[in-house]
């Protein structure tokens, strides 16, 4: 399965995605099928009408820590992350998928681009799999996780030098 917008990543999917059928498909013995899942109760990790402050117990949260942040749903499970400077994102290039890429503010007119969209994923405890009250922001274009001053890095549950999993775990508090 792959995300319908990027057509490459499958680590997080929204309400629309593409699945690959390999046997006994509708048109042939192999094809991609577009799938949309509609629900009356979509997952909403944030209040779209509220502003939030963003913090992390383990790291400088970079551009997100400067002012209040607003999350706007894109309609398929992803969100734009808006600061007073613009919407948080990266360019839609292969180079932008590299580790340590620093997100920056873009004009709101680019909200429909995958590099400016984010999945909000609740963090879970490794001991009991319960939500911890923090979230991770996963960039829709790169599939990498926002890690404050370290930029975008792979999701992790282990330490790697100065990179710690806690730096990816963000606390969102209504302002």
TrEMBL record:
<protein>
    <submittedName>
        <fullName>Coagulation factor 5/8 type domain protein</fullName>
    </submittedName>
</protein>
């Amino acid at each position: 399965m792959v995300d319908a917008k990027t057509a490459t990543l499958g680590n997080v999917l929204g309400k629309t995605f593409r699945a690959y059928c390999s046997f006994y498909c509708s048109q042939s013995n192999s094809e991609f099928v577009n799938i949309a899942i509609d629900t009356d109760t979509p997952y909403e990790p944030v209040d779209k009408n509220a502003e939030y402050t963003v913090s992390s117990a383990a790291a400088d949260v970079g551009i997100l820590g400067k002012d209040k942040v607003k999350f706007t749903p894109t309609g398929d499970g992803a969100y734009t992350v808006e600061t007073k400077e613009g919407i948080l994102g990266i360019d839609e290039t292969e180079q932008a998928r590299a580790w340590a890429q620093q997100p920056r503010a873009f004009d709101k007119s680019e909200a429909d681009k995958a590099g400016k969209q984010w999945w909000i994923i609740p963090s879970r405890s490794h001991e009991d799999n319960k939500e911890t009250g923090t979230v991770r922001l996963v960039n829709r274009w790169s599939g990498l996780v926002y890690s404050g001053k370290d930029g975008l890095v792979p999701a992790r549950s282990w330490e790697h030098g100065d990179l710690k999993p806690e730096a990816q775990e963000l606390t969102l508090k209504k302002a």
